Amino acid sequence: MRTTKTRTVPLLAATAMLALLSAPGAAMAEGHGGHGDDEGTHGNATASATLEAHLIELNDSGASGTAWVAVDGNEVSVTLETAGLLDGAPHAQHIHVGGKNQCPDPDKQGNGADGALQVSDAHEDYGDIVSSLTTDGDTSPDSGLAVERFPVGSGTYERTFEVSDQVAADIVDGKGVVVVHGVDHDGSGTYDGDVASDLDPNLPSEATDPAACGELVASQMDAMPQGGVETGDGSTSGLEHAGAIALGAGLMAAAGAGAFALRRRPAQK
Amino acid sequence: MTAGGSPRRSGGRLAAAALGAVAVVGAGLVAVSLMQQVGDPPQPALGSGTSSEAPEEAEPVAGSGDADPEGPARTADPSGASDMTPSAAPTAPESSAEAERPMTASEPVTLSIDAIDVQEDVFPIGLGTDGELLAPSGDRADLPAWYDGSPTPGETGPSVIEGHVTWGGRPSVFFDLGALAPGDRVSVLRADGSIAEFEVYDAARYPKDSFPTLEVYGRTEGPELRLITCGGDLDADGHHLDNTVVFARLVPS
């Protein structure tokens, strides 16, 4: 017994430590009493938080979107819904941190065609890329222009990936800005034009100019429910008790058939 | 056997009587079933997954007729974005003349909606393994449930209470939810004995496959309430294709 006890004590301690470390995560999953108490975990690598962003158009792109992000330790889960982006074209999308941690004024004049806002024009607002929201593979800033691994057109993007302690802490602290790129300024239906991208001279500026931007702010939810709810097990609209009606109708039909047979029997005689 | 009748004839009568009884039982079943038919649950017009503004900025409007055809993502508003400074604490009361003063946290106990004859105990419910909001089941299937990851009713933010429209093929607690209209009152008795009184300002119906997450669950300036149930047509498995959502905000009680 004694040996068992001495073994279980450190085991218990370790379990308790684990529980402590994962407490914010557990609070997110269970949600009990977790309201508004995550300030205490800000700046901590094991912090967890749910954040949300409304993306508004830049460069008169007509694009918009919503994003919500769950941070759990170093794990970041991003859902990004976009609309109004150029169809059939890839749209680079990132989380930025830095500058003033904000989106640029949509009316801000940039150095692109006809004063279009280019990526570097907004650098003072939202800083550098910290995560590239690619569809697969690397999500580091290195993939910032990995055009072949970004979503095409508008839609829903979902991905969970790992970030550094610093990036996790910055996002939890509300410093993250979600930016989606790619604007068809001239309405040609594709990325073209004479102005080159300020990021890659081999790309037209349209391919990298920011199209929509949203600041990640703390959600009022411990965890954002995914999708709608299943609060109906079938409608009462339409036919109730269809089985009873069928049975009743069947009985009536059987009785009718029986009566018909009875009446025919004397005739057969 | 009865007098004056041949065995065969009386057998025939018996058979006829039995058949008659069967017919009566059958007719009775049909009649009773037909008398218990229930109409469609009331529901708002189908939105396309969003209204033209994020709910926290929306003026009290009737219905969701102003739904935006561009899809669920278009909810952004420049003023809304700039309101939300990144440093804002999750439940910090933001200064506004319109928003009712938030209450301290206290879990909901009873939900009362006079307009649709609802007065039921509320229990807390969480998320499933896929992050979906679980639905009431078992003994508590017909009770409304408060999503325990949402603010408690009266706290700043969207407090979420869901209930079934039907359960076991019969109308459930939120069968008439879609009939609520702007101005209707919803009151929630809380564990601390206080009552959070809400006023409905919008109602909408969204396809589940394009549920506008942030419009329903996104930040609000003041204390608000979301009442959610199912609606719309059924899919092949008998599940509703839409969700009905009623939006309400805290008012002086």
TrEMBL record, chain A:
**N-terminal signal peptide:** 1-29
- Bilayer-crossing regions: 242-262
Keyword annotations for this protein?
Membrane, Signal, Transmembrane, Transmembrane helix
Superkingdom in the source lineage: Bacteria
Q: Where is the CHRD domain?
A: 59-186
Region (Disordered) location:
96-116
Query: What's the name of the protein?
Result: CHRD domain-containing protein
Origin organism is: Brachybacterium phenoliresistens
